[in-house]
Design goal:
The chain is 56% helix and 0% strand. With 145 residues, the chain is mainly α. Helix 4 crosses helix 5. It is globular and about 50 Å long. The protein starts with 9 loop residues before the first helix and ends with a helix.
Length: 145
């Protein structure tokens, strides 16, 4: 009886939903910036409102939709902060671009002060979040082995 369950369909339905959410993004021709991108330049660029809408000629991929969704929270903030949010969405999937983790680490190593300010976060909160992400990633890696 599904009426007695907290979630319709029970655990199998929750597992199916979880697996669908972990499906890798479809990038088409869209990629993240290269590992050696000029992060200082991104720290000076502001995310325009147009980033929340489909652009002419843009492929309608799962990544394009996710990127526009993320952009809604970053209009008026720096492209660097926006890139950080995009990179955070990657490890939640089963696979992601090879250089995403390296770019994320570089971003925080070189521009943590900017990100703390741009994201208006308490540094302790951010470090706890980063530590949680690392534990999750390590647990996933160990589970695959």
């Amino acid at each position: 009886m599904d009426d007695d369950l907290t979630n319709s369909g029970g655990l199998p339905a929750l597992q199916d939903r979880f697996e669908r959410r972990r499906a890798p993004f479809d990038y088409s021709d869209e990629v993240l910036p290269a590992e050696d991108v000029d992060l200082t330049h991104l720290a000076r660029q502001i995310v325009p409102e147009s980033a929340t809408r489909p652009q002419p000629g843009e492929a309608d991929t799962s990544w394009a939709r996710k990127r526009r969704h993320i952009a809604q929270e970053f209009v008026g903030k720096t492209e660097l902060a926006f890139l950080n949010a995009q990179l955070i969405s990657k490890p939640r999937k089963r696979s992601w671009p090879n250089h995403a983790a390296t770019l994320f680490c570089r971003l925080w190593a070189e521009h943590s002060d900017h990100l703390f300010t741009a994201l208006n976060r308490d540094p302790g909160t951010m470090f706890r979040c980063l530590a949680k992400m690392r534990r999750t990633r390590t647990a996933r890696k160990e589970a695959r082995q």
